[in-house]
Amino acid sequence: MTESAPRLKPIGNTALARLNLGKALLQKGRHGQALVEFDAAGRENPELAEAHLGKGLILARRAEFTAALAAIDHALALD
To answer: Which of 25, 62, 59, 22 is nearest to 42 (CA)?
Structure first.
């Protein structure tokens, strides 16, 4: 019988960790993965303007302008 690995619980501010991971992924050109992290950071901490801005920038690069504008407007309203 195999045991499953214990499930780890996040400690501390995972929203900031996801934001920083998103930034690193964006710098590496891994836009899809960065978008996932920015989106998760924004859901975990809706007041994290930088997460919404990062999401908006990636969406704009993908020519998803309506969604990009909404994310960037949200970021600006928070900042």
So the answer is: 22
Say which residue, 53 or 7, is predicted with more confidence: 53
Give the distance from CA 33 to its chain's centroid. Answer: 9
Q: Is 58 exposed, middle or buried (0-12, 13-18, 19+ CB in 10 A)?
A: buried
pLDDT confidence of residue 67: 97
> pLDDT digit string (tens) for 36-73?
999 999 999 999 999 999 999 999 999 999 999 999 99
The Cβ-side half-sphere exposure at 10, using a 13 Å CA radius, reads 8
66 vs 62: CA distance, rounded Å: 11
